[in-house]
Heme-binding protein (Lusitaniella coriacea LEGE 07157), 131 residues
Amino acid sequence: MVTLEDARRIIAAAEKKAAEIGQPMNIAVVDGGGNLVAHVRMDGAWIGSIDISIKKAWTSRAFDITTQDLATHSQSGGQFFGIHASNEGKVMVFAGGIPLKKDGKVVGGIGVSGGSGEQDSTVAQAGEAAF
């Protein structure tokens, strides 16, 4: 289970990393059911990335895989080609979504958007580490 207290700690760690790299981000945390627990839009972060961060968090939980790994497998000829069109377009295949695990079981997800894929992943990993 991902509590609000957990989400706040995850977001705080991700915000700290985003500030360190100088890139304002949108950071979302979902619970085991893919429901939004908390979201932060840092000052200056793109408003278009709000939706993307939430959907990255949802996608990482819905499929229990990082969105970066899902992106790799969703290219033409890949086993998940076309998956982005499923779930009414809710699936995000950009780096920055990571499942959150407790005792080896996926219990939620973090989604980060607002920078390059590498930046989004770096910030999401910082949040994951705080969980």
User: Anything to note?
Assistant: Residues 4-130 form a domain with the Beta-Lactamase fold (CATH 3.30.450.150).
